Automatic annotation (TrEMBL):
<keyword id="KW-0998">Cell outer membrane</keyword>
<keyword id="KW-0472">Membrane</keyword>
<feature type="domain" description="RagB/SusD">
    <location>
        <begin position="279"/>
        <end position="533"/>
    </location>
</feature>
<dbReference type="InterPro" id="IPR011990">
    <property type="entry name" value="TPR-like_helical_dom_sf"/>
</dbReference>
<protein>
    <submittedName>
        <fullName>SusD family protein</fullName>
    </submittedName>
</protein>
<dbReference type="InterPro" id="IPR012944">
    <property type="entry name" value="SusD_RagB_dom"/>
</dbReference>
<keyword id="KW-0732">Signal</keyword>
<dbReference type="GO" id="GO:0009279">
    <property type="term" value="C:cell outer membrane"/>
</dbReference>
<comment type="similarity">
    <text>Belongs to the SusD family.</text>
</comment>
<dbReference type="Pfam" id="PF07980">
    <property type="entry name" value="SusD_RagB"/>
</dbReference>
């Protein structure tokens, strides 16, 4: 079924915020789309901006991937205007600004891409292969938008060419019908992309980075066989590998020179030589830049199993109480690589979240209400300067754990699935004398035990990387984990364990889908509000 997508002409150039220098028009007097969409450079500009304005911004905390853990039980995002706070605590309805913002923004970008694709043959290029490459990349970005929108709203308008105002008011298409077309389109797009990573424009899709993206959504939408097949193809390509040091992968030591980042949010992708992860995630130290906008919760801290790969309440070496009071005790090394808190050393000084005179005092505005901060993406070198740390939006560890999860969900835990888990655990530094999943004690695991293992493995491997919210939604566990208070650091007070209390949270069964904002329903009367709103 041929579909066409919403596009409003006045929005065409409005979305180019954040990349003005790069998007300077060849003809400064141009006032229409046709006047500036003429050359190969124009093709590059619109493709670049299609990434930058939604998927790779450097300073829009509503869209930054590492902020999205604040929607989940992993973290607390303190600023209401960033939208993550209300999504996590359940204080939302069909008039909540966030849902108009995300829906309108994504539809605007899809509309722009549709217009670019409808005119893709217009710009002059010396090599036709260049045109086809940009065309495939733009089509891939459109698929990415639709995967995201379907996951949030379910049935939506699905349109693939520019539309008039009236055509844009077409009825929504069922989610499953959209997904079927997206996965079919994705095969063709991947085959038209070059197999190798670009030496410049590294962040742009190549064949395998796009397959990795489709793999992610195949897993999300329970296409287990497809997810496993794509993961296997990426593994077999031998183009990517785990970086040997987990901590350094998210620091200056390894961020720019590794073969693990498959979709790489490098400096070119953000349109500047500055990034802001320290500002967004780091502590306010003396006169430093940290704003503690998104901080870890006790729920995430307790999710780090022991160095032997056991849950902290099932370990014979120490009690759960001991583990809660000392998160570094016999813990999965990914904890210290990813999180810091009260009693840890930062910039040569001990962190104290309980002394009112300390800038890290948990009640200060720019401090962490949980008493924890992400160490991942936070370099001490950036405490008093603008940093330029770059990030992996999708990395090879996700390929390995996707293959394992897809096989577990098919109840077919083969040798490769076990190897994938072991590779991730061994790189993390677990004690493989116990954590090796080929050991005899794992041979009796039920499917549910494997599910519990792989889900926790994903949680700690990707902590702070924006995947947790999608995971708790697709696993249908948000009703359990987001109906708990958001808690922070735990200490002993008068013989009792006491955790910092940040806020109460709630999640209703209808919150698995987001509402259409009331303004959107007025503009698109054919839409039907999702149940419960």
């Amino acid at each position: 079924m041929k579909r066409r997508v919403l596009y409003l002409i006045p929005l065409l150039l409005a979305g180019f915020t954040g990349c003005e220098k790069f998007l300077d028009k060849r003809d400064p007097t141009a006032t229409t789309f046709q006047e500036f969409f003429n050359t190969e450079a124009d093709l590059q500009r619109v493709t670049y901006s299609s990434y930058l304005d939604y998927f790779t911004p450097r300073d829009n905390r509503r869209l930054l991937f590492y902020m999205k853990d604040g929607r989940s039980d992993n973290a607390y995002a303190r600023v209401d205007g960033d939208h993550h706070l209300r999504i996590a605590n359940g204080t939302m309805n069909s008039n909540t600004r966030a849902f108009e913002y995300y829906y309108t923004l994504q539809m605007k970008h899809v509309g722009r891409i549709n217009t670019y694709l409808a005119n893709i043959d217009v710009p002059y290029v010396e090599d036709e292969a260049i045109r086809q490459r940009y065309k495939a990349i733009l089509e891939g970005l459109r698929v990415w938008h639709y995967f995201e929108m379907v996951s949030r709203w379910g049935d939506i308008p699905f349109l693939l060419t520019p539309a008039t105002i009236e055509e844009a008011k077409s009825p929504p298409v069922p989610k499953e019908e959209i997904l079927e077309q997206l996965f079919q389109m994705s095969d063709d797009i991947a085959n038209r992309l070059p197999p190798d990573e670009y030496t410049t424009d590294k962040y742009m899709f190549n064949r395998y980075s796009f397959k990795a993206l489709v793999m992610r959504y195949a897993l999300y939408y329970e296409r287990w066989e497809l997810a496993a097949r794509l993961a296997r193809e990426i593994m077999d390509s031998r183009k990517y590998e785990l970086y040997p040091n987990y901590r350094d992968l998210f620091q200056y030591e390894g961020h720019a020179n590794n073969r693990e980042f498959i979709i790489h949010q490098n400096l070119e992708s953000v349109g500047t030589n500055v990034t802001h992860s320290f500002r967004d995630l780091g502590p306010h130290f003396r006169t430093g830049r940290g704003e503690s906008y998104n901080v870890p919760l006790k729920s995430l801290v307790d999710a780090y199993w022991t160095a032997q790969g056991r849950p902290i309440d099932q370990c014979p070496l120490h009690t759960k109480r001991e583990y809660e009071l000392n998160p570094k005790l016999n813990r999965d090394p990914r904890y210290e690589a990813s999180i810091m808190g009260h009693g840890d050393i930062f910039y040569g000084e001990e962190i104290d979240v309980y002394s009112p005179g300390n800038p890290m005092y948990y009640q200060n505005q720019r401090a962490s209400k949980s008493g924890y901060w992400f160490r991942k993406f936070v370099s001490e070198a950036d405490a008093f300067r603008n940093g330029n740390l770059t990030y992996g939006l999708l990395r090879y560890a996700e390929v390995l754990l996707t293959y394992a999860e897809a096989k577990i969900m098919q109840n077919d835990v083969d040798d490769l699935a076990k190897s994938c888990i072991n590779q991730v655990r061994e790189r993390a530094g677990l004690d493989m004398a116990y954590a090796n999943v080929t050991l005899p004690q794992y041979s009796a695991y039920t499917q549910q035990q494997w599910i519990d293992l792989i889900r926790n493995e994903r949680r700690v491997e990707f902590a702070g990387e924006g995947l947790r919210y999608d995971d708790i939604i697709r696993w249908r566990i948000a009703e359990r984990v987001l109906n708990q208070p958001a808690l922070g650091h735990t200490r002993e007070v008068n013989g009792q364990l006491q955790s910092l209390h940040i806020e109460d949270r709630s999640f209703a069964s209808h919150n698995y889908l987001w509402p259409f904002h009331e303004l959107v329903l007025k503009v698109e009367p054919a839409l039907e509000q999702n149940p419960g709103y």
